[in-house]
Amino acid sequence: MASNLPGNSAPLSSLGEKLTIETPEQTDLDFAVAGIGSRFLALAVDTLIQIIVGVVVGIAGSIAITAMAAVAPTASLWGLAVLVFFYFLLYFGYFAIFEIIWNGQTPGKRKAGIRVIKDSGRPLTAAETIGRNLMRIVDFMPGFYAVGIASALLTKENKRLGDLLAGSLVVRESSFSELKPVWQSPRPANGPALAPLGADRLSAEDFTLINSFLQRRLDLAPDVRYRMADEIFRRLKSKVTLPADNTLSIESILEALVYERRATGGYASS
User: The domain containing residue 221 runs over which residues?
Assistant: First the structure.
């Protein structure tokens, strides 16, 4: 069953707990969707950490506020305000800060072996991560994440409201070690197959370089990704044959070269 992602024409299909994302770069990515049980385990670990930190800071803060009240009552009010703000950050900022720093993981998610990613397979931006976690206010209502649990039970990819807002999903960490993208030959929508580009003229080192880039590109910043693709293409340009009416992007050309070499049996997939 396929569906279109918001802002992305690539179809996304899933079967049970297995999810396949076809990216705009013509790469198939398979992910194992995290179940409610593993997400609950992660939340339990994170909540325990929050409680321990909250109790320690609460005791220390109460002692400090009491001491300030004896000297300067106004200062104690500011101390109380700071303590309240700290608890707000501890509850909501904890998740957002860790997920931004640890690329979609908190200590609990690491323990449970799960990670938050975009529906497209890419990491969430800082703004998306913050928005996703602010929705915990609603997900928690009326208590014990009742709304969030109901949402996870009713959606195919076990999404709570924060995931629906940010366009994210939680997957098992093992998915990344098993990730094996399949590069597909770009072809015109209603036209003939792409003419040979001369992949046979490239060396094994050239294909190692191309494949290494294609495997890593989703983790690269857009400017770094574009610059690396351009540098690789400049190195290989003299060896390939491009049609006069070429409209392919540089990355599509690199993908086509790998596909062409594999199709002829001259290059083994890594």
Answer: 199-263
Query: Over the stretch 63-77, which tens digit does the pLDDT of each residue have?
Result: 988 888 888 878 888
Give me the residues of the chain with pLDDT under 50, please.
Answer: 1-16, 25-26, 181-192, 266-270
Q: Which residues of 227-253 are buried (b: 16+ CB within 10 A; e: fewer)?
A: ebbeebbeebeeebeeeeeeeeebbbb
Chain segment 110-147, per-residue pLDDT in tens: 999 999 988 877 788 999 999 999 999 898 888 878 89
By three-state DSSP, how is residue 1 classified?
coil
- Rounded to whole angstroms, what are the CA distances from 150 to 146, 153, 156, 159, 160? 6, 5, 12, 9, 8
At residue 211, the 3 state secondary structure works out as helix
| Residue 182 domain flag | no
Contact between 207 and 261 under an 8 Å Cβ cutoff? The reply is yes
User: What's this model's pTM, rounded to 2 decimal places?
Assistant: 0.60
Name the domain boundary from 128, 147, 177. Answer: 177
User: For residue 9, is it within any domain?
Assistant: no
Among candidate residues 258, 260, 263, 264, the one with its CA nearest the CA of residue 209: 258
Residue 209 vs residues 28, 65, 84, 95: alpha-carbon distances, Å: 20, 61, 53, 37
